[in-house]
Amino acid sequence: MSQITASAVAALRAKTGAGMMDCKKALVETGGDEDKAMEVLRQKGLKTADKKSTRTTGDGRVFAYIHHNQKVGVLLEVSCETDFVARGDDFETLLKDLAMHVAAVVPTPVSVEVDGVPQDLVEKERAVLLGSEDMQGKPAEIQEKIVGGRLKKFVADLALMDQEFVKNPDMSVRDVVTAVIAKVGENIKINRFVRFELGAED
Prior knowledge:
Layout: H1 6-16, H2 20-29, H3 34-52, E1 59-66, E2 72-80, H4 83-86, H5 89-104, H6 119-130, H7 140-158, E3 164-165, E4 168-172, H8 173-184, E5 189-197
Antiparallel strand pairs: 1-2, 2-5, 3-4
Helix pairs in contact: 1-2, 1-3, 2-3, 3-8, 5-8, 6-7
């Protein structure tokens, strides 16, 4: 078994936000393979988050963020279970990371989850895809299969939780939230967000 160095543990922690001991255990379990260790931590986080997903989130915070250029702002409403977690550093860091993500990411998310993406946007994209040159001459069932796959990606790209996290594209926003849930031991839920940009139309 390869030696697990402190720097390897620290590097994994920086990428995942997991605890030092969890990172070390994951690296030991995977023989020092960082990619596999990240997957182990992700699965552990998903299991922890799933157990807590039905618990009531009666506390939380509304968080305001103004980008450094003073032209983009974000308001977030994120809930958790207790005031103790809502006032903690881990929750504060999560709020900042989420707000910075919404401010910077392209495309701009329009909903928290995929089921919140407006149907009119989906139908407009479907029409564009069906009318594209590479669809011409293909049987209808083949067109629907191709368009269905592209629409799935289109919707995921507009749903905050399924987007690649801007600070670490190896993780989704869902992975980031899940890691904090595992760390603080409480359910956390992004309820809503609004992004403002100077001069942008509604």
